[in-house]
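> call design_seq(struct)
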């Protein structure tokens, strides 16, 4: 039996077991996907013995994404650029490989949900400067977006990301976010604002062009106030669940094989679980 797991501290909240469990059953694969709660001080030893523990690979979630990158012998370009890995696998020689599939997940979902969006039609406004923002900046730049405006409450984080990701990224003031919407073809919220239990995201979408896309990476609730106001004024609204589902595909393929599909049935299954 092929076994993989998600490693976190805490790990209880992870939806990855639902996603991979759904695909394992759907593809009739003799495999298992488990949760492993691993303390930060135990991570290095856990990863060194991943194969002995019977695993072919793992997802890594908070707070282990940076340490997982350091533990791997080979790392993909996305994980290097983001400074964090979320997917690990062992090759037949036992070498640990690391990747970051969040940018792939974001871009693939955007492409599926807003195929009309085109990286050349205007600037993109990204709100937030945490780990999710890094993945999205990497994905947008790799796709060829010429101009990304980046706004975050703590401005030191925007300038450091702008420096890290290069001239396409322009740091702007958090208070300039409404005005910056004019001429944007895409707005992405990567902050935790709007998530259940968090304050709402305050933004006035009035300057946003009518054909722009609004993508919130928050998925609890699935329809945030931001997505509702975007839909109400006719903008295409893309929710955060799709990024989570699409990012899982690459791990599944490397551990278990097959071509897992992100379907409505999977969305409903994960939301109900
Ligand atoms: P992740 O790695 O999941 O993106 P994170 O690093 O905790 O998470 O980032 C959360 C983001 O939400 C940050 O951009 C944070 O802004 P700061 O860098 O200023 O902390 C943003 N955020 C959280 N609460 C906020 C609030 N009340 N107002 C504005 N931004 C907020």
């Amino acid at each position: 039996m092929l076994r993989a797991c998600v490693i976190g501290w805490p790990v209880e909240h992870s939806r990855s077991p639902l996603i991979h469990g759904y695909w394992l059953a759907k593809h009739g694969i003799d495999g298992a996907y488990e949760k492993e709660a691993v303390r930060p001080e135990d991570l290095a030893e856990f990863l060194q013995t991943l194969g002995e523990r019977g695993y072919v690979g793992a997802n890594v979630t908070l707070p282990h994404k940076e340490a997982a990158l350091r533990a791997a012998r080979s790392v993909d370009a996305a994980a290097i650029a983001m400074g964090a890995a979320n997917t690990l696998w062992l090759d037949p020689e036992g070498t640990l490989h690391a990747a970051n599939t969040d940018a792939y997940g974001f871009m693939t979902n955007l492409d599926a949900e807003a195929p009309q969006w085109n990286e050349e039609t205007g600037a993109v406004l990204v709100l937030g400067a945490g780990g999710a923002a890094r993945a999205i900046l990497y994905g947008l730049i790799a796709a060829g977006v010429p101009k990304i405006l980046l706004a975050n409450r703590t401005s030191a984080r925007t300038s450091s990301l702008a420096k890290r990701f290069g001239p396409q990224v322009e740091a702007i003031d958090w208070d300039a976010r409404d005005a910056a919407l004019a001429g944007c073809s895409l707005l992405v919220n990567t902050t935790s604002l709007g998530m259940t239990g968090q304050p709402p995201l305050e933004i006035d979408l009035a300057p946003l062009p009518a054909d722009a896309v609004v993508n919130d990476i928050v998925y609890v609730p699935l329809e945030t106030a931001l997505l509702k106001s975007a839909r109400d004024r006719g903008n295409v609204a893309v929710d955060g669940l799709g990024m989570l589902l699409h990012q899982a595909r690459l791990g599944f393929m490397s551990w278990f094989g097959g071509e897992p599909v992100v379907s409505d049935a999977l969305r409903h299954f994960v939301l109900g679980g």
